[in-house]
Write a structure and sequence with these properties.
By secondary structure, the protein is mostly beta strands. It has 2 helices and 32 strands.
């Protein structure tokens, strides 16, 4: 019965079902654009993937012919391409069903200090007569860093199970996709010693106050003191008190769900807060005094389903991945992670991880016992299309574990500011918004969830056309961006698209 209630609640908040019949409808024009009008490179970059975006999936195979012009850059000496472009033309192949295509720019040299060096690539022709150039028919690849001027991005979140979270950097027009089940916790690299949970996997954690012996805790353990909590009843729409005195009892309400335990009035939450502040982590700040760091029980979240959802729906939550016990120590420059299966009483694993100032967080996989490359360096991403996002909080009458789809965060730990513009009388449309319209006082630097899921209407299955966003990155570049697609052209969710422009 409890499982049925949970499924109904999730269905009510997260799942839409919409079907369309395109039989007999004409396909929209097939147009090709460069995904960005400018691409910058650093001295360390040796290759750059140059992407061509399509207005719809290709209904037939074909070839896009791209030409180039170098400024102080010669083919074969300063750069090459893959496929080969020594003839002056790069033939980019397109397969039926492709939604984009790409070629590789191979940088063979760097620019001399003080000089300008670049290559401009242009769409020249197609072997399919009904294919057309779009508005962005060329892109400039610079041998030095340059902030991208704009583009259209089709994200790589991966479909209706939303297997990937995507990090996007506006100035470099770069997206990085990471499978969201590759890590459970992340260690903060700033001056404070903090531990974050993977909200994209619905990870949660509870402290066993006063307990420092990792091996003394098992599911059969009594809690040091009774915890007075609440659980939400979907049937009665009320919070019901729960007194928990054993670990086995606590585990029933630890995983994120509509029956998750917590007590917001007392500040008890087993997830990080939605805002992502340092003070809002489920783990207390790691003390440099070892005896002050207690054992935590970590719920490892949920498997990514292997089967896609029906068209128009999502399937992001599979089987529960189990529990581990974890204790984290720190000396200010390193973290020591002690961890073991909940039933283990003989030995535990221990890993030491050094802080790395280039990154906000260092991700760690409790399942595999190793650090994982997840976030780009803190200066190289602006928004995280996490896809799935879970935390304990309140929405309307519901005070419980909330799990969202199609969620977007911004890099508050990396000094990125963002605000939402709601279109109403007297407010500029997205097309007309300019640098003169920027409101410096509106930028939010202490709440990563400003975008959240408000950019789309889950029940209507459409993009929210009444909002767009303004962003200021850590280098002082200003961008506006607007979501333009919620699904792919076949109606499958988990395929997002947005357009952006530097102000």
């Amino acid at each position: 019965m409890r499982k049925t209630i949970l499924l109904k609640a999730i269905a009510l908040l997260l799942i839409i079902s919409s079907c369309s019949n395109d039989d007999g409808e004409d396909l929209i024009d097939f147009t090709v654009n460069f995904s960005s009008e400018t691409v910058g490179t650093s001295e360390e970059d040796t290759t750059k993937e140059i992407t061509l975006s399509f207005s719809r999936p290709a209904s037939e195979a074909g070839t896009i012919n791209v030409t180039y012009t170098g400024t102080n850059a010669d083919y074969g000496t300063d750069f090459t391409t893959t496929p080969d472009g020594a003839s002056g033309t790069i033939a980019v192949s397109v397969a039926a069903g492709d939604q984009n295509a790409s070629f590789t720019f191979n940088k063979l040299s760097n620019a001399i200090e003080g000089s300008t060096k670049s290559v401009t690539f242009s769409i020249d022709s197609f072997d399919q007569t009904d294919w057309k150039q779009g508005a962005k028919a060329s892109t400039l690849v610079s041998y030095t860093p340059v902030a991208a001027t704009g583009g259209v991005v089709d994200t790589e979140n991966g479909g209706s199970t939303i297997p990937n979270q995507v990090y996007f950097d506006f100035s470099s027009a770069t997206q990085i996709a990471v499978q969201r089940d590759t890590w459970e916790i992340a260690l903060y690299n700033g001056t404070e010693n903090r531990v974050y949970l993977n909200s994209a996997l619905a990870v949660s954690a509870v402290e066993i106050t006063g307990e420092t012996d990792l091996l003394a805790i098992t599911e059969a353990s009594d809690l040091p003191e009774t915890m007075d909590l609440f659980t939400y009843s979907f049937i009665s729409q009320q919070m019901e008190p729960v007194s928990v005195s054993t670990l086995a009892g606590l585990l029933e309400g630890l995983p994120v769900g509509y029956e998750q335990y917590g007590n917001l009035d007392e500040g008890i939450s087993f997830t990080d807060n939605a805002e992502g502040t340092l003070e809002g982590t489920a783990f207390s700040e790691v003390s440099t005094t070892a005896e002050e760091n207690y054992v935590y029980i970590v719920s490892l979240g949920y498997e990514i389903p292997t089967e896609p959802a029906e068209t128009g729906s999502i399937a992001t939550t599979g089987d529960h991945r189990g529990f581990m016990k974890v204790r984290i120590l720190g000396d200010g420059s390193t973290y020591t992670i002690q961890y073991a299966d909940l039933a283990e009483t003989e030995s535990y694993n221990e890993v030491t991880v050094s802080k790395d100032d280039a990154y906000n967080l260092t991700a760690f996989s409790l399942s595999n016992g190793e650090t994982v490359s997840v976030e780009p360096t803190k200066a190289q991403w602006d928004i995280n299309l996490s896809g799935v996002f879970a935390y304990y909080g309140s929405q309307g009458p519901i005070v419980a574990g909330l799990t969202y789809s199609d969620y977007v965060l911004h890099n508050t730990l990396g000094d990125v500011g963002l605000y939402q513009v709601t279109i109403e009388e007297g407010v500029s449309s997205y097309a007309n918004f300019s640098m003169n319209d920027v409101d410096e006082s509106a930028f939010v630097y202490d709440n990563r969830a400003v975008v959240g899921s408000g950019w789309r209407d889950a029940f209507g299955g459409v993009v929210n056309e009444n909002v767009y966003y303004v962003l200021k990155d850590g280098d002082g570049n200003y961008y506006k961006f607007d979501f333009t697609a919620y699904t792919n052209t076949e109606g499958e969710r988990g395929h997002y698209q947005f357009t952006y422009e530097r102000l």
